[in-house]
């Protein structure tokens, strides 16, 4: 009897799954077109899953092994089940025992995996979604156990007539449950949807360059994509869910609601009304239409679930009243990319948030807080503070900095950034100039020809002002010849390095910590031993997660003789200072301040000093009252430790090259070298 | 709050304008100029004019038209688009050449369109910037003018209730029969953000108009503005409260006197004496 029942069950489940898949694909196709290489993507998908995705999942070893057993077991079991029970190969003489044995193995592995899934669900952490996800381990067990047991008679391990008809029917019923969850639910919107949407999302990802290939590592691909402002028909950002590209919608649908993003999000921790997981789920609600009442995870802090609803062609943010998402949710984001870094499904949260911000700024004209004022300043004065652009170099009146306009060609173009108007950052800049001079670097600055890089304008959604600033900066830079740009501002660094390229400006850009590390390696800097207390280091988001530079700042600190007492959240998990993405400008209230939390992290290490490498981080962390640690930029620490070359170290192998300008000033050095 | 006062000079013919619109919408024209950023001198939407637009947007059921008299070039276009970005689909440009006197052209345009309320900034941010334009327009059209507005409270039966800004945060409520010209004080609500999308899509509808040359201006000698010496405020305050009051105070002219019913000679005498006392004339 089972021989006739099982194929019917299996193939009807498959048919339903196919119908669901078509429906789901049509939902995604509501999005705007995107240029995706479909075939190459599908071909690359297994590798993206096995290597890149598991690289992220494997940060949690138990969960990673659980997933390998469960998912691997399921895929194998499903294929084998179709062969053995669906197509009846189980009864063939030659293939039957092999396939059946493999099926037993696969379903057993899946069952063991689902036991671990069940264990995690017994006392789930707050970041996990509940609701339908709570039944998933039972469904997994139902599928694997029933497949295992139904395969035993086929293999002849148990005689075909074992048990009664009732038992067989009961088993078949359990299998129906399992099939329903695993096949039907996969495409009709159950928890298993993540497998179907996730696989296609990996294949058709909007940033394929993120993934590794056989040839090498993927790059970080963190630069925002430019809007086409010349085409008056091109939409300015995203108003409705269908304004996202179809592969973005697909990406939202891939979310497995693990809440790793939520656990890392600084805005969520600060009690601001943002939860990256909920945001992605709201987009899923939007693409299918409906309300968020069925969401079973942590809500946006301070915003009860069930009050928002949307539709594929309805607005995401209402001009008045409520729609799918409130504007302050979008403006709470610091664009720190902690969510993207942590997401095992490789979802691009920050892209989506900036897309929606673009619409709010460019179409609604509704940038909150000081946003409108800052953007007006950027338009009128090329800096966010509204300062006279002719006063850019006032801070350096006594430094006699060489100007690009006078020299035309140098080794290093020192990009100063808007920190020139900030008295705290001026100390960092003076230190950096001192270091460059000590190393005899041939450098110059743009002076009054420099403008804001456009970082803040772009994160606030004002793509027009960003492109205007960027194009003028690129035109200025194109007049001069230099080998690389060095800057102490990771935001300028990121924009110059990763976002000007699309507009025609391709440069070699280094953060000052990278450059100082190189100078030290080359033997051009010499430091007195560190005499201060313990030191910790705060990774700026735009240097670390955006550009992968975790080592150079630590190497510089090591060269200074500092043993860094690492914070629990450092490196790629560094917690944001709260200063990115225009967050201090839009200033969405929360329960606590992000920099306060970060200084608490510093306090836990017992460090007396926190080294930073970003003017925003410096400003945010120094703004914390009753801080236990002093905030110093790496450039300042290096400048304080500078010494002339120790007398004994003048070996012939030293490749120090005294530049023409500084050579006359230090004749003793020349004697030692020769 | 002071008692309501009728603005002087309201012509009795004003109520006729209400017949111009049947659907009851209030016709509002906002005069907008090309501003100049105080630090960089770049063209922008003028601050007070933009506040005037904001004031118009605050009026329920108003049909707002934006009006600019001048020439269209790259700079002025970007500034004018700044007004469109506040949510307008079109702006009327009364074409005038540089050096033209825009008052006659604007007056012709307004008397033809017959809006009930004309809103303008107090003075332009560049050019002559005398602040005379609203007054000259009012004189030509024979309409009442109310200066230094903070808000328009309501418009009913052809009468507008206005809130005029006075020093130190004081307000005076006025009623004026429409049509009328009002100018906007810096105390009025700040202009909303100008959005790029509507600014780019909005149309600048050019209308040709007769050009009357400004005869006086070419004879003037224009020199860059110099910072004028300011009278130092010497505060002899004993308490923090006094210091705060002194810092917050606008020029009050406490020792001034109001001369009424005097002959021109007596008036001139008084002014001459004041100038001598203040050391302006020696």
Automatic annotation (TrEMBL), chain A:
Alphabetically sorted, this entry's keywords are: 4Fe-4S, Iron, Iron-sulfur, Membrane, Metal-binding, Oxidoreductase, Transmembrane, Transmembrane helix
Residue numbers spanned by region Disordered: 644-674
Domain 4Fe-4S ferredoxin-type intervals: 246-276, 321-352
Keyword field contains Cell cycle: no
Q: Which domain of life is it from?
A: Bacteria
- List residues traversing the bilayer: 6-25, 68-89, 95-118, 139-158
PANTHER family noted in UniProt = IRON-SULFUR-BINDING OXIDOREDUCTASE FADF-RELATED (PTHR43255:SF1), IRON-SULFUR-BINDING OXIDOREDUCTASE FADF-RELATED-RELATED (PTHR43255)
Q: Mind telling me what this protein is named?
A: (Fe-S)-binding protein
């Amino acid at each position: 009897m089972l021989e006739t029942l099982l194929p019917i069950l299996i193939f009807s489940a498959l048919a339903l799954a196919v119908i669901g898949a078509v429906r789901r694909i049509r939902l995604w196709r509501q999005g705007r077109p995107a240029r995706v290489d479909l075939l190459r993507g599908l071909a690359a998908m297994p590798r993206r899953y096995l290597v890149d995705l598991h690289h992220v999942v494997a940060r949690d070893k138990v969960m990673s092994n659980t997933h390998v057993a469960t998912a691997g077991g399921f895929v194998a079991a499903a294929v084998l089940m179709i062969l053995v029970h669906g197509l009846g190969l189980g009864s063939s003489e030659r293939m039957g025992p092999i396939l059946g044995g493999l099926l037993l193995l696969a379903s057993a592995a899946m069952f063991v995996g689902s036991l671990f899934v069940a264990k995690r669900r017994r006392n789930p952490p707050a970041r996990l979604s509940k609701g339908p996800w709570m039944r998933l381990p039972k469904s997994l067990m139902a599928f694997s156990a029933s497949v295992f047991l139904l395969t035993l008679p086929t293999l002849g391990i148990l005689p075909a007539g074992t048990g009664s008809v009732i038992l067989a029917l009961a088993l078949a019923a359990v299998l129906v449950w399992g099939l329903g969850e695993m096949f039907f639910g996969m495409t009709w919107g159950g928890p298993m949807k993540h497998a179907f949407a996730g696989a296609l999302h990996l294949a058709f990802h909007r940033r394929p360059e993120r993934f590794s290939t056989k040839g090498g590592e993927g790059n970080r691909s963190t630069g925002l994509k430019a809007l086409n402002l010349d085409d008056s028909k091109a939409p300015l950002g995203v108003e409705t869910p269908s304004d996202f590209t179809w592969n973005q919608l697909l990406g939202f649908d891939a979310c497995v609601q693990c809440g790793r993003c939520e656990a890392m999000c600084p805005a969520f921790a600060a009690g601001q009304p943002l939860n990256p997981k909920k945001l992605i789920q709201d987009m899923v609600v939007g693409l299918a239409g409906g309300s968020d009442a069925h969401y079973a995870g942590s809500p946006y802090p301070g915003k009860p679930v069930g009050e928002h609803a949307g539709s594929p062609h309805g607005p995401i943010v209402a001009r008045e009243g409520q729609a799918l998402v409130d504007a302050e949710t979008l403006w709470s984001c610091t664009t720190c990319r902690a969510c993207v870094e942590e997401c095992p499904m490789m979802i691009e949260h920050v892209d989506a948030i900036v897309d929606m911000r673009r619409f709010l700024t460019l179409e609604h004209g509704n940038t909150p807080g000081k946003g409108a004022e800052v953007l007006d300043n950027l338009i009128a004065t090329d800096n966010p503070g509204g300062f006279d652009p002719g006063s850019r170099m006032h801070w350096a009146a006594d430094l006699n900095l060489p100007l690009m306009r006078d020299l035309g060609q140098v080794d290093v173009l020192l990009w100063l950034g808007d920190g020139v108007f900030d008295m705290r950052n001026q100390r960092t800049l003076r230190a950096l100039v001192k270091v460059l001079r000590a190393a005899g670097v041939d450098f110059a600055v743009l002076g009054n020809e420099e403008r804001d890089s456009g970082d803040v304008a772009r994160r606030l959604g004002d793509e027009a002002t960003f492109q205007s600033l960027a194009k003028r900066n690129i035109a200025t830079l194109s007049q001069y010849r230099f080998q690389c740009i060095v800057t102490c501002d990771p935001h300028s660094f990121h924009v110059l390095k990763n976002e000007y390229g699309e507009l025609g400006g391709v440069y070699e850009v280094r953060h000052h910590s990278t450059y100082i590390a190189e100078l030290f390696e080359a033997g051009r800097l010499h430091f007195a031993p560190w005499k201060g207390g313990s030191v910790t280091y705060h990774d700026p988001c735009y240097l670390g997660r955006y550009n992968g530079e975790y080592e150079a700042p630590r190497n510089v600190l090591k060269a200074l003789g500092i043993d860094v007492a690492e914070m629990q959240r450092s490196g790629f998990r560094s917690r944001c200072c709260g200063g990115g993405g225009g967050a201090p400008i839009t200033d969405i209230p929360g329960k606590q301040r992000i920099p306060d939390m970060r200084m608490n992290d510093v306090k836990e290490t017992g460090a007396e000093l926190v080294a930073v490498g970003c003017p925003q981080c410096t400003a945010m962390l120094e703004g914390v009252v009753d801080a236990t640690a002093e905030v110093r930029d790496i450039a300042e620490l290096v400048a304080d430790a500078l010494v002339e070359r120790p007398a004994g170290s003048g070996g012939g192998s030293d490749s120090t090259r005294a530049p023409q300008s500084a050579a006359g000033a230090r004749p003793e050095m020349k004697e030692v070298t020769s | 709050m002071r008692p309501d006062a009728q603005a002087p000079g309201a012509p009795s013919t004003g109520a006729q304008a209400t017949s111009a619109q049947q659907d009851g919408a209030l016709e509002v024209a906002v005069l907008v100029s090309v501003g100049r950023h105080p630090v960089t001198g770049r063209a922008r939407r003028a601050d007070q004019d933009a506040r005037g637009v904001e004031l118009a947007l605050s009026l329920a059921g108003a049909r707002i038209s934006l009006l600019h008299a001048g020439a269209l070039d790259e700079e002025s276009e970007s500034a004018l688009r700044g007004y469109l970005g506040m949510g307008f689909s079109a702006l009327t440009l009364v074409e005038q050449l540089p050096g033209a006197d825009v008052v006659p052209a604007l007056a012709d345009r307004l008397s033809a369109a017959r809006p009930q309320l004309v809103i303008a900034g107090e003075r332009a941010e560049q050019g002559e910037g005398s602040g005379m334009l609203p007054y000259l327009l009012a004189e030509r059209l024979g309409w009442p003018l109310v200066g230094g507005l903070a808000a328009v409270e309501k418009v009913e039966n052809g009468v507008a209730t206005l809130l005029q800004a006075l020093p130190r945060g004081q307000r005076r409520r006025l009623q004026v029969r429409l049509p009328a010209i009002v100018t906007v004080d810096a105390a009025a609500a700040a202009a909303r953000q100008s959005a790029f999308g509507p600014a780019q899509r909005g149309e600048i509808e050019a209308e040709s108009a007769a050009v009357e040359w400004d005869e006086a201006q070419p004879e003037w000698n224009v020199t860059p503005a110099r910072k004028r010496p300011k009278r130092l405020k010497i505060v002899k305050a004993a308490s923090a409260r006094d210091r705060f009051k002194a810092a917050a105070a606008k020029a009050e002219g406490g020792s001034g006197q109001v001369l009424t019913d005097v002959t021109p000679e007596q008036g001139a005498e008084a002014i001459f004496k004041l100038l001598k006392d203040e050391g302006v004339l020696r």
